[in-house]
Amino acid sequence: MRRPLVAGNWKMNLDLPRGRDLIETIRSGLETLDVRERVEVAVCPPEIYLFPTAAAISGTAIRLGAQNVYHEPSGAFTGEVSAEMIAETGARYVIIGHSERRHTIGHHEDDRMIHLKVRAARRAGLTPILCVGETLDERKAGQTFDVLTFQLAAGLVGLAFKSGSDLVIAYEPVWAIGTGQNATSAQAQEAHAHLRAGLREKFGRLADEVRILYGGSVKPDNAEEIFGQPDVDGGLIGGASLKADSFLGIIRAALAKAG
Ligand code: 13P
After folding, report:
1. N or C: which end of the chain has fewer CB within 10 A?
2. Is 128 in the pocket of ligand 1 (CB under 6 A)?
3. What is the mean predicted confidence (pLDDT) over 119-139?
4. Neighbouring C-beta atoms of residue 221, cutoff 10 Å
């Protein structure tokens, strides 16, 4: 059985005091929910706040993730942060290939760079959260499955994993991110089932242990239905992870799935 994961991607939001306040409210909220080992919760603050966030979550079950990584271990790469440096903060996860990095920011990351980053994460013992997803044009052109197949294969080429828990995939349809327009539960399930079939082809039975998260306008009022799908193993949450009540509401939906 895969343990649902709810990860908050704070993106470039929240200053240090606000981030600490949010952690504190989530922490006390989690005490009132019966989370135990049933659901895993993670927060991914801006990189500069990884160390203070690690201190703020210390002694809680909340895990830490980074939003990006550079693939080289060290060297003359001004402004970049290596996987080893991220691991030093105590982070367990790193988001790789987020659609904002593929499509919005700077020079746009390609699948080769994303692959190198996944490799770097493994080298440092981090669990990559590899994001894949189609644009609206690709969906309209009927290319969704092809895009997912390609991005999954390119990101993971030549890699092996000892345990399915060493890899997380996030299906994030680009048209659903920050738009308020989430994928329907049926759209999510068919994409997730397609991704799991791709993982099975590559990794065999290990694919059944890999968590595939849905991301894109997840809110407390749609989370339970989306998470209720058999191949949806939790969510990567943007906007709704910035407020404790909505993030906790989404964790509650994951608990309903965990049973
Ligand atoms: P929203 O939840 O704000 O749509 O963002 C999703 C996302 O990009 C998570 O990585």
Report:
1. C
2. no
3. 98
4. 12
